[in-house]
UniProtKB/TrEMBL annotation:
One Pfam family linked to the record: OEP
PANTHER family to which the protein is assigned, alphabetical: OUTER MEMBRANE CATION EFFLUX PROTEIN, OUTER MEMBRANE PROTEIN-RELATED
Record has Cell inner membrane as a keyword: no
UniProt GO MF annotations: efflux transmembrane transporter activity
SUPFAM superfamilies: Outer membrane efflux proteins (OEP) (SSF56954)
Record-given protein name: TolC family protein
TM annotation in the entry: none
Species of provenance: Spirosoma aureum
Keywords from the named record: Lipoprotein, Membrane, Palmitate, Transmembrane, Transmembrane beta strand
Location within or outside the cell: Cell membrane
């Protein structure tokens, strides 16, 4: 009759053989390979330009020469709430990757369990235990009591063997989403850099408008004084005084509006910097700021490799394609190994006895049968999301190329507009001076003087707005090319 030791030896040998067999089975897996990310066609150049390297490769300190602006951008990159949230999204993606890595490894749990069973007399266990207790080989602590306790102290494990590559694909998708979240952070940095620069140059433009308005207020006050003198001399009527005074009041109202716009822009900028409202230090006036004489954009193929939202969309598409492969593998059987090892006894006194050592392993294949509709639905969702990610990737590239072209055209067109407006302002200033002289000598009406003064004010404000538009086109081009996230 076999002894207890020989039975344990055979059980150990069988358990090890089962583990080796199932593990070798996992090595012969059939992996579902995800679809490759398709190559998107892009134009050979932007509006016929074949620049080798674009300004998107420049560090922001190279593009923006104003030290006040550079300090504001640095502050925003350190304190902006949106950027901090983007960093946390990276941490979430990394945690998801760690979870997917853990799914490839067996789970091991330390177990301390106790149970109690009372077997009926006319049951398999009841009759079997009764007959066992009558054996001459059973005595003392070996007798099975009824009710029968069950004590276990040891380790239990569960391990799904990745025979189809499903778990590895899940890990790959999770890692790809980590990369996508990092590109998302770069996208926030690029957008934040351009937005801070946009608001800064808007502030400079408003400062310029305020200076122009104040200069015109002074000139119009002198005009009011002059027309009052003319009225006292009987050369004009009260209507002329009223018209000049109304123009002065209108210009003063513009000053109040511009001041309020400055407050609003400063508050928007402070919000990006992650701080409460406070004055924003500015450098040189917008009139003294120089737009680069020539700007290079590089090639569209460089845009695809550099722009963060395009790279993020590409990563999302890659992850979605991997999800499709995972959904396909869900239709196949899963192989799970559940080994255990520990001390097992029906008496507490013998639990820590070496003879109570027990171990075992169970391997099982589970295949979906009645839940295939659920799996088909999950697969259909994965395919649809993959197609959606593909179209999003395509749309992002189209938008990127379009934005670059618009910014390039904007720089060219606004440069021509600025040159013409410089000439216009110079001519209108001469006209205003001439109208004043003619009015004093009685050769022009007061309406001609008012019209000339108003035309100078409008032209100077338009020129400031055009200068601002030039800088905004430059900033937008820098953002469109994916600059600022280095």
């Amino acid at each position: 009759m076999p002894t207890v030791q020989s039975f344990k030896k055979h059980s150990l040998t069988y358990g090890l053989s089962l583990v080796v067999f199932l593990t070798s089975l996992s090595g012969c897996r059939v992996v579902h390979t995800p679809s490759k990310t398709p190559d998107m066609s892009v134009p050979a150049s932007f509006i016929g330009r074949t620049d080798s390297v674009g300004i998107g490769n420049l560090d922001r300190k190279e593009l923006f020469s104003d030290p006040y602006l550079v300090r504001l951008i640095d502050t925003a990159l350190g304190q902006n709430p949106d950027l901090k949230m983007a960093i946390q999204r990276i941490e979430i993606a990394r945690a998801g990757f760690q979870i997917s890595q853990g799914a490839l490894l067996p789970t091991v749990n330390a177990v301390a369990a106790a149970g109690l069973d009372r077997y009926g007399r006319y049951t398999m266990n009841g009759i079997g235990n009764y007959d066992t207790n009558l054996s001459e080989n059973i005595n003392g602590q070996s007798r099975i009591p009824n009710p029968t306790p069950d004590f276990f102290l040891g380790f239990r494990s569960s391990w799904e063997l990745d025979i189809w590559g499903k778990l590895r694909n899940r890990r790959r998708a999770a890692y790809t989403r980590v990369l996508a979240s990092q590109e998302g952070r770069n996208l926030v940095v690029t957008a934040l850099t351009s937005e801070v620069a946009r608001l800064y140059y808007t502030l400079l433009a408003l400062d310029g408008e305020l200076d122009i308005i104040r200069e015109n207020v002074v000139l119009q006050q002198r005009a009011v004084e002059l027309v009052n003198v003319q009225k006292a001399a009987g050369r004009v009527t009260e209507l002329a005084v009223q018209q000049f005074t109304a123009q002065l009041l209108n210009t003063r109202s513009l000053e109040g509006k511009v001041r309020q716009e400055i407050v609003q822009v400063e508050n928007q900028l402070n919000a990006l910097l992650g701080r409460y409202p406070q004055p924003i230090a500015r450098g040189r006036s917008i009139e003294d700021q120089k737009v680069p004489a020539s700007v290079v954009a590089g090639l569209p193929v460089q845009l695809v490799r550099r722009r963060p939202d395009i790279r993020q969309a590409e990563r999302e598409l890659e992850a979605a394609n991997v999800d499709v492969a995972v959904a396909q593998a869900d239709f196949l059987p899963s192989l799970t190994l559940t080994p255990y090892i520990g001390l097992n006894s029906f008496r507490a006194a013998t639990l820590i006895d070496p003879a109570s050592l027990a171990l075992g392993a169970l391997g099982g294949l589970t295949a979906p049968v009645f839940n295939r509709r659920l799996l088909k639905g999950n697969y259909a969702v994965s395919v649809a999301r993959s197609k959606e990610a593909y179209y999003a990737y395509q749309k992002t590239i189209l938008n990127g190329v379009s934005e670059v072209v618009s910014s390039l055209k904007g720089l060219e067109n606004y440069r021509g507009v600025a040159d013409i407006q410089d000439q216009e302002v110079a001519m209108l200033r001469k006209a205003a001076t001439t109208s004043n002289e003619l009015f004093i000598n009685g050769y022009a009406t007061y309406l001609e003087v008012i019209t000339a003064q108003r035309s100078v004010l409008d032209a100077e404000l338009s020129r400031i707005e055009t200068k601002r538009a030039q800088f905004l086109s430059l900033i937008e081009l820098y953002r469109s090319l994916g600059g600022g996230w280095q």
